[in-house]
Amino acid sequence: MSKLKSILVWDLPTRLWHWFTAAAIFYAWFSIEFLENMDHHFWAGYTALCLILFRLIWGLVGGTPSRFSEFFRAISNLRGYNATLLQRDSTSYLGHNPMGAIAALLMMLCIAIQVVTGLFNTDDYFFGPLSGLVDTELRNLLGRIHEWNFDLLTAFIVLHIAAIGFYQFYKKQSLTKAMINGRKTTTAKEEVGFKFVSLWLALAILLACAAAVYALANCCADSIPSGEIYF
After folding, report:
1. Residue (of 112, 90, 98, 95) closest to 25 by Cα position
2. What domain range includes position 73?
């Protein structure tokens, strides 16, 4: 039997992205539902937009397990994975398992839809930075999508938490711990081919995304109705 050992799977940028994105989404909801503070809601949305842009790029150039190519490779094993889903001792995956890869992609899509529609949203007092680029009918439609999509995103989050509990207590696989320290326990042979990139590259990408979001937030100020508050 091969000896088990702990190896690095999730690089620091991926782990930080995961937790900061969760915090941004939570605070975007909290700032509206409890604080009723649209200023904070917009800033949480800008943060989420910056983070999702970063993740899209990181999915192309980041560490091996974080790349979208690995997501689709995992998904290709979906049928075999589903056959062993309820087995307590089924093989664990270093990166995302097939269902996890699908869920992660769907959640990223929901987050992207949420932040993009938020750019056009308005409550007739606070205007999103791109709200002046569309007519009232389309702006209202995007506002409804913004609300509906959050319900869908919430459902995905609940399923995500339930899946973590399933793996933690039924399969005895700690997904949360791996997303904190980045390490999983596996056989030595399984780590072959893993490559990670410089943290400086991650920082450069993040700064570029932040600059892009800042430019986007201010590019269409003249299109906002005069005298209205926008961000």
Report:
1. 112
2. 4-230
Q: In the prediction, which pLDDT does 26 show?
A: 97
In tens, the pLDDT along 111-146 reads 999 999 999 988 766 778 888 888 889 989 999 999
Query: What gap in Å lies between CA 154 and CA 30, rounded to an integer?
Result: 13
Rounded Cα distance between 71 and 216, Å, is 30
Q: Which alpha helices (DSSP H) does 62-198 contain, by range?
A: 68-75, 78-83, 98-119, 136-169, 175-181
Q: What are the angstrom distances between the C-alpha of 195 and each of 137, 139, 170, 185?
A: 48, 44, 31, 17
Read off the pLDDT band of 84 (50, 70, 90): confident
The CATH number of residue 30's host domain is: 1.20.950.20
Calpha distance 58→68 (Å, rounded): 9
Beta strands 183-187; 4-8: pairing state = antiparallel
Q: Domains in the chain: how many in total?
A: 1
Q: Give the per-residue pLDDT at 231.
A: 43
Residue whose token pair is 């049928």: 79
Single pTM value for the model: 0.91
What secondary structure, in 3-state letters, does 4-26 show? EEEEECCCHHHHHHHHHHHHHHH
Cα-based distances in Å from 173 to 8, 148, 157, 192: 16, 33, 19, 21
